[in-house]
Specification:
The chain has 111 residues and is an alpha+beta fold. It is 35% helix and 34% strand. The protein is built from 3 helices and 6 strands. Strands 1-4-6-5 form a 4-stranded mixed β-sheet. Strand 2 and strand 3 form a beta hairpin. The radius of gyration is 15 Å and the shape is globular.
Length: 111
Amino acid sequence: AVEIMNIAAEMFRVLTKINKKYGMQFQIRVGVHTGPVIAGVIGVKKFAYDVWGNAVNTASRMESHGRPGFIHLSEEMYHLVMDMPGFQYTGPETSPIKGLGLMTTYLAKPM
């Protein structure tokens, strides 16, 4: 959980540098959840590595329902990282999440 948050924070840092260097205003949003997944290689001639599972779908929903400039966390993920320094946390919010119903979620902003 900590490594995922560090990766997300690095994504925001790199994007800030790119925006400054090229005078752009790109924004990203990140969604994070935790849970079991199935992973594997698919294909016969052209191989692709993929990951499946409810945790992947939930993380995708966190991203698509998130806000630019923030990491949208499921409640389960928030409880794993809530004491992690380097982030400003807001929430909880109860939001309707497509395909999942009402969920309690949190936002994190790298500092």
